[in-house]
Structures are given as structure tokens and as C-alpha cells.
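This entry is retained here.
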Amino acid sequence: MANNEESRGLKSLLDWFANRRKSGSIIQERQEREIADGLWHKCSECSVLTYTKDLKANQMVCVECGHHNRVDSDERIRQLTDAKTWSPMDEHLRPTDPLQFRDRKPYIDRLREMQEKIGLVEAVQTGLGQINGLPIALGVMDFRFIGASMGSVVGEKLTRLIEQATQRRYPVVIICTSGGARMQEGMLSLMQMAKVSAALQLHREARLLYIPVLTNPTTGGVTASFAMLGDIILAEPKATIGFAGRRVIEQTLREKLPEDFQTAEDLLKHGFVDEIVPRTQLKQTLTQLIALHQQPTLNTTHSMVMWETRALSSSAVDA
């Protein structure tokens, strides 16, 4: 009799746990479904639920912990440029498959899938616009497109952007994010590092401003070229910035790296980054830097005019 009562008690206890798990899974499923509807966003850092509309109003920065969520190139352009001033460049340039590369699937099929899924032709958008009334040449990389890897078209579009900026005497700003060179294009991808760097050198010789903004992540060949060639290098908080991956370095050195290794804060501490700027302050910061860069030219011109006026007055007195 006692054994029957114990078995019934054990069974009821197991049923209670089973019901708990079932109800818990239902609640979790309901929460996930509500989050998936797009009304709410769960922060990957602090797990706080935020109304998506409020998150977008704060430029996809978590209002609770300040975590910077990844944004696409269209959103970046809207955040930085003044309304109705954006004029895209070289939209007709399309990537090809010169090496007939194939891994799990043909490269040409991978390109087609990305173009249909994202609605972009390549991993960067370039164009001219204004930022608080100041003209700017802007390039924005998009990590959704094959990890914003640097293919031939990415390098060509950035090079043409810089050349156009040099001709018009515009400052250049590039929002950098990338996994590095695009392996499907081999050496052709690596050549883009030199091509973009050469265009930036001509831009610098013309005494014009170039500001790269390093976002999460900026790695590989992009870091090894134009991302680190700026006159002023800005970065978003806690962005991963580096060349080789953390695991590769640890295996090579056979040492455990610090927790903050390859973060924007670590690079700032070692002088590789000039300033860490929250996304909500980026437009105003860029405006101030561009205005300050233009101001010395105006002051120099004004000083030369005053000097020439004084010189002419002195000559007239001496005569």
C-alpha cells in the first residue's frame, strides 16, 4: 500500500515537472514569436527588450547598456547625410567571377543570392552628399554582403569615390566594416589594397581630409590598408578591430590574449585610434572635424590678404 502511494506521488511529481517544462517552452515560444514579429528587440549584451521603434530612433544603440547593434548601409546613409542630398555613384558596377571560383557553391551563384536577398549589387555604397550642410564624399560598407569582404568592385568603387573627392576637393569619410579580402577573387582582391591606398595618397597630397570610421568588425585586408590610413581615425565603442583573428594569434603565440584585445578601447590606448565616438554623436563629430579642417584654409587666405594689404601700404608710405 505504501509503495503504491509512493509511486503515485513520484508520478505526480514527474507530471508536475513535465507540465512546468511544457508551460515554460510555451512561454518561451510565445516570447520568441513576439520578438520575431519585429515589435521588440532583445539586446544581445544585456538581454533587455526594447521597442524597435525606440531603438531605431536611438540609431540602433541600446538605451540600457549602450550596445551598438549592427546597421546596414542604407541606414548609415540616412543617419549621416542630410535629407535629399545623397547622390549615389557607380551603381552600374557589378562583380564578376574571373577565376571561376567554386567552394560549396559557385561564386557567381553566391553573388546572385546576395544581390537578390539584400538588394545591393556589392558590399559598399558610395556617393556624394552633405552632412549638416557641408559637402562630403561617403563610402559605406555593408557586412550583410559576404561579410563586406573586399572584392574588385569594392576597391574600384572606393577608388573612384576618392578620385572624385580629390577633384572636387571634398573630404572623404569611409564607414569601415569587413572580414577582409574576398578569397573568391584571390590576388585580384589583394590588389584593391594598393589601389585604394594609392588614391588616398593623392588625396593627402592635395591636402584634403580623410576620416575612416571603424565599426564592428573591421578586420583583415581592410584594416591593413585604407581603414588605418586616415588623417583622423574614429571608431565605435567596443568594435572589434584587427588583422588576424584572435584564435589564430593565440595559436601562433601559444598565449592567452587579454579580454579587451582587438577592441576599439584597446586600440585607443595604444594609439591606433584617435577617438571612440558613439553612433549617436557621430554626425555632429564629423561635422565639427570637417569644419575645423576647412577653417585653417580660410584663416590662411585671410592672413595672406591682410599681409599683402599691409605690404602695399608700407610701400606707398616709403614712396
Observations:
- The first strand starts at residue 40 and ends at 42.
- Strands lie at 40-42, 49-51, 87-88, 124-131, 134-141, 172-178, 210-218, 234-235, 275-276.
- The two ends are 131 Å apart (CA to CA).
